[in-house]
Amino acid sequence: MPPLPTMTHSSSFLLPSSSPPAPPTGADAENAVSYAVVVLNQRLPRFAPLLWTRARLRVCADGGANRVFDGMPDLLPGEDPDEVRVRYKPDAIEGDMDSVRPEVKEYYSSLGTQIIDDSPDQDTTDLNKCISFITRNPPGPDNSNLFILVLGALGGRFDHEMGNINVLHRFSNTRIILLSDDSSIFLLPKTHSHEIHIERSVEGPHCGLIPMGAPSSSSTTTGLRWNLDNTSMNFGGLLSTSNIVEEEIVTVTSDSDLIWTISLRKHT
Amino acid sequence: PLRPSPLGPRAQVRVCADGGANRVFDGMPELLPGHARDDVRSRYKPDVIKGDMDSVRPEVKEYYSNLGTKIADQSHDQDTTDLHKCVAFITDNSPGSDKSNLCILVLGALGGRFDHEMGNINVLHLFPNIKIVLLSDDCLIFLLPRTHTHSIHIERSVEGPHCGLIPVGTPSTSTTTTGLRWNLDNTHMSFGGLISTSNIVDEDQVMVTSDSDLIWTISLRH
Fold first, then answer.
1. Is the Kinase keyword given for this protein (chain B) (predicted)?
2. CB-based contact, A98 to chain B, within 8 Å
3. How many structural domains are present in chain B?
């Protein structure tokens, strides 16, 4: 059997920077990573302004617009709230509009934010709609180096959290990362061998590999304190939780899609 | 008259998993602001603090130990999660040998670090014969083992209407429900395909039958 292609992963978007990076030009532009941010309806994590600044496209799912309106000034207390709101203006607000406050919708609309009312579509979640929107309207030339960073997808109502994780499975060819104050999670599709670059200054050491939705007969890792070696994992049996990253690169191969999770350091 | 906290006076055994003792020590007085802190702390005293003791503050451990709380240090056991140790402790020590009426209510298992949450959900799958309910401010979840047909009575004054059925561990080839806005009828569910989220309870009784273990979740009213 031919070896699986390798997919590499990095959380460099969490690294602080003194100024927003300039958009790449020329040959670099073709390979450059571009970020989109989606904000769902939960309290913003502390690094929301950093990611927003890094992103070239910012979409709020319905009540996520309330969270940006209220929360960005709170996260940037030294600055004038009105200036913050204008600077941190979403490109689009998408969803069924039953959570966003009318005055918030009006405020952003008058600043040029696109309002996409999807209320007729009850079959897909708000996150699903936002991912579809972004993949149809990528900020760069295409989706090949697009990373979608999602804030507010974890915690809160459990069915929402599970629906959000299901979006990772349904869009398995799209790089989507769910972030909270405590953790970062993304899908490791079984079609690839994975190389996860650990940014030790902002993430770790706690990590895990979760066979979400289906058992894994065989997973193998390197770089963890308790590595898996052709190990089977399933709910009702062994899961890799409370593991520790020991090296700067973690490799994972599995016969099943796995969810990778790593803790975020408190000062991130 | 004192207003009891929702779970305290009714529970027969109260166990803190390691740093959970800090949360009780700090948090119970905050949730009962009309009462003297020391009164609250001695009234809401855990029976046991269990785990590897790397999170509980020394002074908190000391305080409860002096009041008679048993301290069960299991720092040598790195193979099971704190919740697992607590569930094992409760089942080993529960009044009566019949576990069919035992219900373990767990606070603090959802949200926070994702790997912890998943490890906690795994405990539900590891103890399928024990009713273990994980609760947060927003929702509660418990396992519906495939070995049974389930009749879920809905307390509409405190829970709902949002609910879901999640095949966390393995796909379900066939699930059937009644009582939901969007019922399943011999329906296939899996991650990557359909899972039942943002459903609505329409009746006081929800019935679920499935060929797979499912996680039931329902929102809690504020």
1. yes
2. no
3. 2
Contact B116 A169 (CB under 8 A): no
Average pLDDT, chain A: 92
Task: Please check whether residues B138 and B62 belong to one and the same domain.
Answer: no
- Cα-Cα-Cα-Cα torsion B202, B205, B209, B213, nearest 10 degrees, comes to 90
The end-to-end CA distance of chain A, in Å, is 42
Which amino acid is residue A164, in one-letter code?
A: N
Q: Structural domain of residue B204, as residue ranges?
A: 132-221
- Report pLDDT for B94: 72
Are the beta carbons of B112 and A182 separated by less than 8 Å? yes
Distance CA B170, CA B173 (A): 10
Residues B204 and B138 in one domain: yes
In this structure, is residue B203 part of a structural domain? yes
Tell me how many helices (H) and strands (E) chain A has: 7, 15
In this complex, is the C-beta atom of A207 within 8 Å of any C-beta atom belonging to chain B? yes
Q: Give the pLDDT score at A32.
A: 80
Number of inter-chain CB pairs under 8 A, A vs B: 131
- Provide the pLDDT for residue A4: 92
In a domain, B6, yes or no: no
Measure CB to CB from residue A213 to each of B110, B111, B171 and give the nearest one.
B171
Q: Structure pTM?
A: 0.93
- Residue B202 maps to a domain: yes
pLDDT value at residue A22:
55
Chain centre distance of CA B149: 21
A212 interaction partners in chain B (CB closer than 8 Å):
118, 168, 191
B68 shares its domain with B142: no
Q: What is the pLDDT of residues A119-145, one digit of tens each?
A: 766 678 889 999 999 999 888 777 778
Using the 3D structure, point to which of B58, B78, B98 is the last residue of a domain: B78
